[in-house]
Amino acid sequence: MKKVLILKNDRTGDLFVSLKAINRIITKYKNNKLIIFLSETNHKFSFLFPSISKKIFPMDLGAVHKIKIFFYFLTNKIDSVFILTPKNFYYYLPFIFRKIKFYAITIKSKKSRPNNFFLKYLHKYVVIDRLNLTKRNSSYNVQKNLIMLNVGDEDKNNLQTNYYLNHKFIYPRNYIFFHYKHNLFNSLLEWDLDKIVKLINFLVKQKNNYVLFSSELDNKTINNFFENKFNTFDYKNNKKNFTNKEKIIFLKDIDGYNLFDVVKKSSKVICPEGIISHMSFFLNKPLLSLIHFRLKNKQAFRDQLISCKEWFPPNNYNYCVLKKDFLKSINKISYRINSFK
After folding, report:
1. How far apart are CA 184 and CA 186, in angstroms?
2. Who contacts 205 (Cβ-Cβ below 8 Å, separation ≥6)?
3. What is d(CA 242, CA 118) in angstroms, rounded to the nearest whole number?
């Protein structure tokens, strides 16, 4: 049985961008031994592909981990490798291990990865262009196009979306899922937590939906604030604390398959661009992605446009560019919500 290796030890949002490509790899190499390198962060979603063996490495590879990876290649008979995380170290491996077929996403930028010398040692590669402001496919499709399938195999889904839940909380039938991201709302927009409470109360009035929302893990100050304001389900302690009849529920310390599950069962998702927006797009959820641009000059504006074209999925992707002015932003969100299908 041939060994096929997938290199994907990076951020969780990036993992979801690569899921369609990973699904294609599983389809094409279903009769082979598949191994995936994941990070300490994104391995929490490895339940999506139970048939693949997993190895955990840091996102930022130190000297010791690079040596371990080198010896893994040296001591294992590997047929094919898919570089889905564009780290410079990974592009050196095809030069050393020339009998292995390397497939890779590559980056064209001011500091391209890899440089032209190493490109010729890749069996096949696709390019994510961060230099040219042109109309092009998003990274979702660029990565997917790295793996060509036979006719009839295109729509086969090998990803596992059923899982065992370790809590007894039953979600309401219809709810908006919202996520609070401190860097966006506080650091960039300069909205305090009282404004976030107003935003959540605004969301619950939209067609009388429930609002279930999460915050960042292990932030005691913010978690305590939300816990004292709203009905709460605590995932770490598997404990419900409902003090009122309001249709707002704070999901404290939700992560992994529980987070995936609550997004999957939601009616709509409203969240900052990032992990949850990519997860929502993968699950075909009606999504409103919240964005703020801090643009200092024309080059920053140009770079942001290129980034949008790379990460934003090509179709059915709704987003709202927020301003520091809270009321103007609320009006923009209201308009976007009403445009949901």
Report:
1. 6
2. none
3. 58
Closest CA to 149 of 309, 23, 65: 23
Upstream peptide bond of 94 is cis (omega within 30 degrees of 0):
no
- Are residues 195 and 317 both part of a single domain? yes
Asked if residue 70 and residue 190 are part of one domain, the reply reads: no
Q: Along the chain (341 residues), what's the average pLDDT of each consecutive run of 10 residues?
A: 95 92 92 96 92 94 96 96 96 96 92 92 91 74 87 74 79 94 92 96 88 90 94 93 93 92 94 91 90 74 65 69 94 85 57
Predicted model pTM: 0.89
- 90: closest CA among 79, 106, 77, 78? 106
Range of the domain at 179: 175-338
In a domain, 321, yes or no: yes
Specify if 223 maps to a domain. Answer: yes
Q: Are residues 60 and 205 in the same domain?
A: no
